Amino acid sequence: MDIFFFNKEDVYKGFSMEELSKVREILKREGIKYTYKVIDPSGQWLGTGTKRGNFGSFGMNKNYEKQYVVSVRKKDAENAKYFIHSVLHS
Q1: Residue 57 near residue 42, CB atoms below 8 Å
Q2: Cβ–Cβ under 8 Å, residues 36 and 70
Q3: Is there a contact between 46 and 6 (Cβ–Cβ < 8 Å)?
Q4: Tens place of pLDDT for every residue, the chain, 90 residues?
Q5: In what side-by-side order are the strands of the sheet with 34-39?
Q6: Sequence-distant contacts of 28-31: CB under 8 A, at least 24 apart
Q7: CA-CA distance, 26 to 32, in Å (whole number)?
Q8: If DSSP codes are grouped into helix, strand and coil, which group holds residue 23?
Q9: In the chain, how long is the greatest CA-to-CA distance?
Q10: Any bridge partners for residue 10, and if so which?
Q11: CA distances (Å), 9 to each of 23, 50, 55, in order?
Q12: Nearest-5° angle of CA 25, CA 30, CA 32?
């Protein structure tokens, strides 16, 4: 497995799982290796429990509950951004 932890650039950040799926598909189709992560701030630990556990989910917009971040090697970033733009804005 090729890990590029220190040599990566984020090419997509968003809140839509549908967009994330499109981004992953186009990068795979174009042969660009990528990693992605899901950030869920409501699951972060705060004191004796998670934010959701301590305060509940009242007032939270479910559409923005999780953020998706896709990263590629820096050398592939420009091509990746081009392909991502073409698939999300066509």
Answers
A1: yes
A2: yes
A3: no
A4: 455 568 999 999 999 999 999 999 999 999 999 999 999 876 655 556 545 555 555 555 566 689 999 999 999 999 999 999 999 998
A5: 8-14, 67-73, 34-39
A6: 30/79, 30/80, 30/83
A7: 9
A8: helix
A9: 46
A10: 71
A11: 15, 29, 34
A12: 90
CB atoms under 10 Å from CB of 45, counted, come to 10
The partner residues of 72 in beta bridges, in order of sequence, read 9, 34
In DSSP terms, 35 is beta-bridged to 71
Of 26, 44, 42, 43, nearest in space to 34 by CA: 26
pTM above 0.90, yes or no: no
Helices 77-88 and 17-29, axial angle in degrees (round to 10): 130
Q: Which residues pair with 14 in a beta bridge?
A: 68
Q: What is the b/e burial string over 47-61, where b = at least 16 CB atoms within 10 angstroms of the residue's CB?
A: eeeebbeeeeeeeee
Structure tokens at 67: 């953020």
